[in-house]
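Lab meeting minutes (informal)
Scribe: AK
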Amino acid sequence: MRVGRQKRQRKTVRFYTACFGFREPFKIVLDGTFVHHLILHALLPLDRPLSSLLSSRRVTLFTTACVCKELKSLGHAHVQTLRSCEGLKMARCDHQDHRVDGSSCIASIVGQDNPEHFFVATQDSDLRKLLREIPGVPVIFGLKKSLFLEQPSENQRQFVKSAEENRMHMTESEYKMLISNKKELKRKPSILVSENSTMQDNLENEAQREEDATNIRSTRKMLETSKFKRKRPKNPNPLSCKKKSITCPSNAKDQGGRVGNGTSRKRFRKRKRLTKAVQSELTSQTN
């Protein structure tokens, strides 16, 4: 299906869903001519091309007992069409005693306002012309291997426009109710004034209560979030502190017995130690 044609089909489906209350799964009633067209062009199974046409995941197909009887009377040439119709759901009609042709049966089911929200699929040009005059009846037909959904007729569009205008106007019962309400308002103005003042006071009290509750919540939040911070001793200012001096050790002596960094060095006295022979001689002299 081409893009432009698919957009037109979707727009038509939206028209019927918005203006006439069609809902998924869509119900489609088929006559014998349309079923024969689908079988002739191998558009099987029957629900697949119709669901693709309406852009719906699921559709429910119907036919009538009068359509089946009409196909049965046509003989052996329409046996396959008859079997396909017998496999569909049967829409209830009022022709149990005397059967009529399929077009008349479908027209009677649709009625004047299509209460069951049926899509009608037919190849009968006379039936299609008749259904265009009835508001809220979408018509489907086939052309070779393609299926088409007819655009809403001018009669259907005019019906929707007039119905919308009627909904905008006031009915007689609504007008009478409005007049009675106006008279009631004139009789009891003081009651309305008192009610309005009471309502205004209630609203002001409610607003005040909400404001107080908000203030309480904000105060609680502030108390919960604020914590006592204990003062602790801080480090001294690094700019006010004297830097440490770096000493460089040196073994070289300077003049006056001073070391390289300017400090005096301690002097040790050298002691002379006597030999053992001298010590023994001294001890003998003392004795």
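Next up, CB showed the second protein from the same session:
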Amino acid sequence: MGNGLSDQTSILSSLPSFQSFHIVILGLDCAGKTTVLYRLQFNEFVNTVPTKGFNTEKIKTHST
């Protein structure tokens, strides 16, 4: 499941830089939704704690 995250740069670089996207991540408790969000934002793994409520983040990418 996590193997797709290691190739994250190819996923984000394929998106056009002039468009804005809204992405919703749904899943069960302790399924790794926050981990995926922070992996996309910071491009590294971050230790997280269980989330109460929900997270919203803005992620900027630079396509070449």
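CB comment: The mean pLDDT is 76.
No objections, moving on.
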